[in-house]
Amino acid sequence: MNKENIMKKGLILSALLLSVSIGYSQKTKNAYELASPNGQNKIKFELVKNAPKYAVSHGKNEIISSSDMGFLLKGNEDLSSNFEIKGTKTSTFDETWEQVWGEKKNIRNHYNQLSVQLQQKSGNKRKLEIQFRAFDDGIAFRYVYPKQNVKDSIFIMDEKTTFNLKEDGKAWWIPANRENRDEYLFKDAPVSTLDTVLTPLTIESKSGLALSFHEANLVNFASMTLVNTKGTELKSDLVPWADGVKVRVKDSFTSSWRTIQIGENPGELITSYLVLNLNEPNKLKNTNTYFKPYKYLGIWWGMHIGKYTFWESDKQGATTKHAEEYIDFTAKEGFHHLLIEGWNKGWTPGWYENRMHMFSFTKTADNFDLEKVVEYGKKNNIELIGYHETGSNLINYLKEVDEGFALYKRLGIHTVKIGHVGSKLNMKQMHFGQFGVNYFRYILEKAAQYDLAVLYHESIKDTGERRTYPNMVSREAARGQEYNAWSEGNPPNHLSIIPFTRLLSGPMDFTPGIFDVEVKQGYPGKRIQGTVGQQLALYVTIYSPIQMLADLPENYEGKPALQFLKDVPTDWEDTKILEGKIGEYITTARKDRNSADWYLGTLTNENPREVEISLSFLDSNANYEAQIYVDAEKTDQKHNPEAVAISKKAVKASDVLKLQLGGAGGAAVRFKKL
Asked: Which of these, 22, 37, 60, 261, could form a disulfide with 92 (CB 3.0-4.6 Å)?
C-alpha cells in the first residue's frame, strides 16, 4: 500500500472517530441526531413541513416526542415555520473547571454540540440559530437570533417551545405568577393535570427516570414557566411585561438555555452540574479577597417570632445594645459574621403593605449607631452582613443603591442581604419577567464593583449565574424557615422535597438551626414541624456557602448539639446523595474542602425511619471517628422534639451505620479522619 493510500485511510478513520466522538449523525436531508459523550442521551432535530422540531431519548426510552420550537413576534409574525436549513456545525467540548466555592470543587463540563442555522424562505427572511448540547446528565438547547437586515426592535409575544412528554409521570410543582412569587409548598400531581408552574419542575416518569426541567444562563430575557396545554405536553410560557409583551430587545437576542436533566434516580439530579456548565466562566477575579464561605448569626428570628420589632419601638430589634450582645455571643462561640435587620430608617408596622415604601439605605434607626457597632464588631473579629429591604420599590432603591453600597465598602462590610417583599416590582412588573431578570443581574454586577457578595431574598430563581459571578452566593427563592414562625408552617415532608426541586437550581438561604422548636413569644402555638435532629441535618442536605444559625443566642447556650454547627463547613470538595425518595427521605454526604473529614445529613418526613448507610464513600485506607447527633429515643416532632442523642463511634469505609430517625426527625454525623 502506497503512502498516499495510507494517508487517505488515516483521514477516513479520523473522520469516523470524530463522528463517533461527537455522537453526531445526519439521518436525512433535514434530520440530524446528536448523542451525549456516553451515547445515552440523544437529541433528534428535524424540519417537518419547514417547521423546526426536536425529540429527546435516554437509552431505549423516548422522553420527549416530536415537539415544537420557535417564537411568535409582534404583529402575529410567525418565527416557528417557513424555514430552511442554511448550515449546521458540530463540536465537542471537554474540560474540568474549579468552583471558587461550591458543593463540588472540580466539575467536568463534557458535551457534544449541534448548531443549526435556519432562515425563513419569504417575508422578512429572518434567521434563527438553534444550539443543542447533549451531556451525559441531560440535554439543553437555546435560540440565538443574530443581527440581520431587518432593522427593527424585536417584540416576542410568545415562545412556542413545547416539551411533549412521551409518558405521564408524577410532577413536583409550585404555581407560577402568584402573589407570593415562589414561596409555596410543593405538591405532587400527574403532568397531565398541571396548570402553569415554575421551574425547576421535577418529574418522576412512569419508566422510572427522574427529570428536571429548568433553564440556564438567563440574561436579558424573560423567565420560562411551563403550562400544560394538552395531555402530557408542557409549553414554555414566558413571564410577561405588564403590557403583555414577553421580551423586548433590539437587533438580536439569545434565550436562556432550556434544560432537561436526566437521572436514573432522583439523587442523580442533585449531583448534576449541567445548569452550572451552561453558564459563562468566572468574570470576577478578586472574589476570594472579599468572600469566603461562612456561617452567621443574626438579629432576625426574634422579629419573626414577635420578640422584637423591625421598626423603632420599645421592642426594637436593631439597637446598639442588642447588636453588642449578639456580637459578644457570636465571638464567644467562635463565629465571625452577624446579620442585623432593621438597622435603617423606613421601617413601620405596616411596611410590607405599602408597595411604594421608602426605605433609607444610609440613615440609621433611632437607638442604633452603625459606626459604633461596626467598630465593636471589628474589635471582636466579627464582620456585619449588610441588609437592604427594598419593599420592591426599585425606583427608590436604584436611586440610593450606589450610596448604600459605598457605605458598606467604607465600613468594611462584604456581604449584603437584599429583600424584595411584594407581589410585584415597580410599574407592576413581575419579579420573573425581563424587567426583573435585568434588575437582579444589574444589582449583582454593581455589588461586585463595591466588593460585595449578594444574598437575595424574594428574588428571581437561580439559573447558575454564580459560576460567572461568584459574588452571587445564595438566595431564598422558596418557602424557608420563617414560615414556621407565623404561618401554618412547613409540613415535615417539605424538607425532603426541596433538595430534589428548588435546590436543583442553586444554593438556598433556608436559615436552619432552630433549637427551640416551639415558638413561645409573639406567636404562641406556632412551631417548627420537626426535631432538632432534623435541623442539624439541614446543614448538609441543604447546600449554601453561607448558613445561618437562625435561633436566638439564649437557645444555643449550654446545648451540646451546638458543637456540630461549629464543626460543619459550608464549602465542599465533593457531594454524594446516598439515598433518597422525593417527599420521604434523603441522605447526603459531603467532603470538607479544607480537611479530610466527611459530613452526613439524613432526614425523614412525618414517618419514623431506620436508615442503614454504607460508609463506602470514606477513604478505604483510613479510620474515622463518627461523631453522631441523632434524635433521642422516643423523640419525634410531637414528643420531646429537642432531644438529641450524641455519641462517638470508630468506623471505616467497609462499615454500615444504622440510625433511627423519629417522625419528622433527622441526624447529622461528622466523620473525623484519624
From this structure: 22
